[in-house]
From TrEMBL:
Top-level taxon: Bacteria
GO terms for biological process, alphabetical: cell division
NCBIfam families assigned to the protein according to its UniProt record, in alphabetical order: PRK14126.1 (NF010724)
Species assigned in the record: Sporosarcina saromensis
Keywords, alphabetical: Cell cycle, Cell division, Cytoplasm, Septation
Keyword Ion transport belongs to the record: no
Protein role: Activator of cell division through the inhibition of FtsZ GTPase activity, therefore promoting FtsZ assembly into bundles of protofilaments necessary for the formation of the division Z ring. It is recruited early at mid-cell but it is not essential for cell division.
Complexes and interactors: Homodimer. Interacts with FtsZ.
Entry protein name: Cell division protein ZapA
Length: 86
């Protein structure tokens, strides 16, 4: 079994450096990290009393919520497309 090519990318998220290992391009990983960092800063600005762990959890909750909304919408669109096809 051949190993996939893994990419190691150092990123900064909310003042911490993380090394992300995966099969995505380094630009994709940096983009994702940038979005997480921005969301954490946004949540922190609205809730300055929260520590970084709570900010991280709220960021994860917000991200999963957004994902589920998009997933539902894709499923609705797939149903509509299937109806149109016959």
């Amino acid at each position: 079994m051949a190993d996939e090519q893994k990419t190691r990318v150092a990123v900064d998220i909310y003042g911490q450096t993380y090394t992300i290992v995966g099969s995505e391009t380094s630009s994709h990983v940096r983009h994702v990290a940038s979005m997480v960092d921005a969301k954490m800063k946004e949540i922190s600005a609205r809730n300055p009393y929260l520590d970084s762990s709570k900010i991280a959890v709220l960021t994860a909750v917000n991200s999963v919520h957004d994902y589920l909304l998009l997933k539902e919408r894709v499923e609705e669109l797939e149903e509509e497309l299937n109806k149109l096809r016959g």
